[in-house]
Amino acid sequence: MKRYIAIVPLLLALIGGASAQNLIVNNGQCVIPLRLSTTATIDPSTGDVRISTDDANPCGGGTIPPGPSVSLVVNPTVVASSGQFTVSWNVAPAATSTCTTSGGAGTTWTQLSSGTFQQNQGVGSQTYALANTGSSAVAVSFTLSCTFTEGTVPPRTATVTVNSQNQPPVGCDGVTPPNENIEIPFAGIFGTTNNPLFPGQNGTFLFREISRNTNISVRFVARAPSSGANAMPTTGAFDILSQKGAGISIAPTSVSLKSCKGDYRNLGDGCNGVVNGNTNTVPFTAIGTPGFCSLVAGQTYYINIIHGTPPNLSVPTCADPSCLVAYIRRK
Questions:
Q1: pTM surpassing 0.70?
Q2: Please, is 70 exposed, middle or buried when counting C-beta atoms within 10 Å of its C-beta (0-12, 13-18, 19+)?
C-alpha cells in the first residue's frame, strides 16, 4: 500500500528566506510547479517517489531525453594485408562534445580534430588500409574519448585484425603449388609505365617468360568498383595467352584466379580459366555476378599460371627451358 508523506507543505515553507516554487529534474529537463494540490507518494516495494500535479503537461509531454552517448565500430573486423576497413562513429549530442582519439597505429586516426566528431550531427567514418609484412596477424585498436557538458561516457574502442601477407588465407590448408612457386605482385608484371592495380588498363598486353617447371602466382588486393584511370570494373575479364615463343607453337597452360597460391582446384566458382586454343579466359566480378569469379574488396587474390594441364599439372607442357605467357585485359 502506498504511503503519503507531507513533503509538499515542507517544500512550500520558507527555508533560509526563500520559498520553494518548483521541483526541477535533471537540470531543467522537467519542471514541476509545487502547490498545495501537488502530492507525492513513495512506493514501499520499489522506493520510487511519485509526484502528481494538476498541471496538464509538466514535463512537456515527453520523456526525459537520454544522456550523452558514443559508439565506435570497425568493419570488417578482419582484413588481409593492405585490405580496406572503415572506422565509424556516432557521437550524441555532437554540439556539446569534446572528443580526442588514440591508437590507430599506422593511420591518421590521431590527427582527427574534435570538430570532426561534431560534424554531420556526430555521425561519420574514415577508411584505412594497413600493410602487414610480418609473420603473423596484427591487431590495431582505435579509441574515441568524449566529454559533454551533460556529463561523460567511458571511452569506446574498436579493433581490426590485419592478417600478414605471408599467411595463407582460410581454406588454403592442403593446397600446395605444383612444382616451384614464384610469387610476384601485380605491379611486378606491369612495372611503372602501366597501371599497377588489378586488372590493369583495358587492352593491356604484356609478355612474361615462365620457366617450364614453375608455377607463378601474381598477387593483388581486390578493390571495390571504381571509375577513372585506375578503375576497377563491376565485371571484366582477362586472357592468358600461352606460347613457346613469340609467334611459335602452343604450350598448353592452366590458369586460375584464387585466394590461395598455386590453387587450381575446379570448385565450380568460375575462377578457373576457360581454355580456347592457347588462350585461357577468366571472367571476374566485383559485385557477385553469377557465372563470374567473384572478388571481395580488401581480400588478397592470386592469378596462378603454369605450363601444365590437369590432372597432373607438375608435368610441364613447355618443351623448352622457358615459355612465354601474355596477360591481356580485354574488357
A1: no
A2: buried
